[in-house]
Amino acid sequence: MVKACPRCGAPAVEHAGDFWEFECGTALYVRRDTPSGVPEEHLEGPCAEPLVFITTTFTPSMLPPMFELPPQEHVAAVTAEVDHDDVYDLLSRTEPEQVRGAVGHENTARVIERLLGDALPEGVSLFARRNISLRAGDKVIAVIPQFRADKAREFTNEEISSANFRFFVTRVLPQWEAPSVMSD
Q1: Same structural domain for residues 23 and 112?
Q2: Same domain, 29 and 83
Q3: Which residues of the chain have pLDDT under 50?
Q4: Tens of pLDDT, residues 29-81
Q5: In terms of CB atoms within 10 Å, which end of the chain has fewer, N or C?
Q6: In a domain, 7, yes or no
Q7: What H or E segment, with its residue span, contains residue 80?
Q8: Within a domain: 2
Q9: What whole-number distance in Å separates Cα of residue 64 and Cα of residue 89?
Q10: 55 is in which domain, residue-wise?
Q11: What CATH number is given to the structural domain containing 108?
């Protein structure tokens, strides 16, 4: 049973049979009477469009496993380090409803919100613990604090406020558009 948006993790607010609606405004329909007999999911609404996630990391586990997709939907990710101005430019070209916060530590989210300032669309909160499922067209802005704690824990406000940050943008492409990692 679907309990959250498969794209951004927003909780379901309505469910009836093969229909779900989520807090993000996205709806999911499951069509069971397909010619192949395999149910198909169909998304409509904000999460059906490419999204920009703001996080403190990028991991390949955010990409869908190849075995879950037909070959024409396989994806690859390209990552580059950018500067604050590049992030500002990317956010200024992105519709506010396509931006999703995904920073799991509240102190870190607040500091990054101040760091991004007015580049962050109004009403977007970065603090959200969610699973991210990327697909072609999506981007991840990873704002990474440059210090390590001796053990995994939420950083204090003082630690995160005094940290330097690096910015990375990951772009998810259809695999056939991406450079091959297997060639020399």
Answers
A1: no
A2: no
A3: none
A4: 888 887 877 777 788 888 888 999 999 999 999 998 888 777 778 899 999 99
A5: C
A6: no
A7: strand 75-82
A8: no
A9: 28
A10: 49-177
A11: 3.40.50.11170
